[in-house]
Specification:
The complex is a heterodimer.
Chain A lengths: L1 H21 L8 H10 L9 E3 L5 H4 L2 H20 L9 H10 L4 H28 L8 H23 L4 H14 L5 H10 L6 H33 L6
Chain B lengths: L1 H22 L12 E3 H26 L24 H7 L4 H22 L11 H23 L18 E2 L2 E2 L1
Antiparallel strand pairs in B: 2-3
The chains are: A mainly alpha, B mainly alpha.
Chain lengths: 243, 180
């Protein structure tokens, strides 16, 4: 009996240790505990420990920057799921899309979410830019972060555009043909730029692979790095505050 | 731990006081008297709610609306009209009206560079809307033009990208008479 009781006590204390190893400060019942939690938690450390109520008023930020970032996360997660089933070659791509739509468990739902989240992200990023302009939040000392934001808008558009080709249907290749045709009008560099984008003179196998690689690795990586700088600068330059 | 946390909070407050000093010329309103709150859990809970709401919205939309998937790509058959994705339709619209070098290259480059330079071109230090009438009107005009061009490109451009009042989004595109 004694041995069992000792074992239970020991187990209980190990479990307590496990809990406190992950959740160090218990429930945030007081400001002090809440502040300590925010300081020592990796996910929460992006936020300042204390904020003024006027900075985070929803009628000021409209949550647009946060929603853009959240949509990026949604797109990463749904995108990973799609990558399990999608082969970027003209032989397989379209059939894989049909399979995703009709065969793969939740394939249609995940594909739809990826598509609509991408459209939503283009819209929220635009609106975020409009909000920042209209509140004059780009003014000193945030000039540099406005520039980073402009680049992030471009990355968002390019991500959306490269993704547009991947279903390999009539909508995809002709939209990308029209889009890449715009590039060839640049003086001197134009035709070369188009050749570089397409990996040839027309949209084909090489184009699909290039767009795929940029869509799933190149652009998200650049975008992620710019986001890190963007968020870091928000903290360093200070919140722009309410109007 | 407690003193470490308090020290860091005090340090942050000093940084903030300095920020307000630096910013005194541009901040429209002194916010130093505004209520200070601890961001966890109140602020983070709000963000969480926004994320959950967006997820719910996406799931509902994705159940109701099917993402388009036309016939397999066929380089030999060109749909008419061929349209870029909607966010590039403003550019395609410009291309149909102006010389390609201007509409396809010079104009977008100019707009991007102008956008990045906005904080340096806008010499007005005020953030109060009533004191920024010119900036706000110019920006509203820019947004209105972008939105108008995208709407025209999406809804009012039919066969041969010619103006068409009856064009409806999602109409089956034709490839030389046959539906794609």
């Amino acid at each position: 009996m004694k041995v069992i009781r000792a074992a239970v006590d020991e187990m209980w204390s190990v479990m307590g240790q496990m809990t406190s190893a992950v959740f160090r400060h218990g429930l945030p019942m007081t400001d002090k505990i809440a502040a300590r939690t925010a300081l020592t938690n990796f996910v929460l450390h992006i936020h300042p420990v204390r904020v003024r109520r006027s900075w985070i008023r929803m009628s000021y930020t409209l949550c647009l920057g946060g929603l853009s970032f959240f949509l990026f996360i949604v797109l990463t997660v749904t995108g990973l799921y799609l990558m399990f089933y999608y082969v970027p070659s003209t032989q397989h791509a379209y059939q894989d899309m049909r399979d995703l739509q009709f065969v793969v468990t939740f394939g249609g739902l995940i594909r739809n979410m990826h598509r609509w989240a991408a459209h939503a992200m283009v819209i929220t990023v635009w609106l975020h830019m409009a909000r920042v302009f209209l509140t004059g939040a780009y003014k000193k000392p945030r000039e540099f972060n406005w520039g980073i934001g402009t680049l992030l808008l471009l990355i968002t558009l390019l991500l959306s555009f490269t993704g547009y080709l991947l279903p390999w249907d009539q909508l995809s290749i002709w939209a990308v043909t029209v889009g890449t045709n715009m590039a060839k009008y640049a003086p001197i560099a134009g035709p070369y730029t188009r050749y570089l984008m397409l990996g040839g003179t027309a949209v084909g196998d090489a184009t699909l692979l290039r767009f795929y690689v940029m869509h799933v690795v190149g652009l998200p990586l650049v975008g992620f790095l710019l986001m890190v700088v963007h968020f870091w600068r928000v903290r360093k330059d200070g919140f722009s505050g309410g109007l | 731990m407690a003193t470490e946390a308090t020290d860091r909070i005090a340090a942050r407050q000093r940084v903030e006081a300095r920020r307000r000093q630096v910013e005194a010329s541009t901040t429209i309103r002194d916010d130093s008297e505004d209520e200070m709150i601890v961001s966890f859990p109140e602020f983070i809970f709000k963000e969480f709610i926004a994320a959950v709401a967006m997820t719910a919205f996406l799931v509902v939309v994705s159940i109701v609306l099917q993402a388009p998937l036309l016939g397999q790509a066929n380089p030999g058959v060109t749909p008419n009209p061929s349209k870029a994705p909607w966010y590039f339709l403003g550019l395609q619209e410009l291309l149909s009206r102006f010389p390609p070098l201007m509409a396809g290259v010079a104009f977008p480059t100019f707009v991007i560079v102008l956008m990045i330079l906005v904080p340096f071109l806008d010499r007005n230090p005020s953030r109060r809307p009533s004191e920024r009438k010119v900036a706000i009107i110019l920006f509203a005009l820019y947004m209105a033009i972008v939105v108008a061009l995208v709407i025209i490109g999406t809804f009012f451009r039919g066969h041969e990208f010619i103006w068409n009042w009856g064009w409806v989004l999602g109409n089956p595109q034709t490839c030389g008479g046959a539906a794609c």
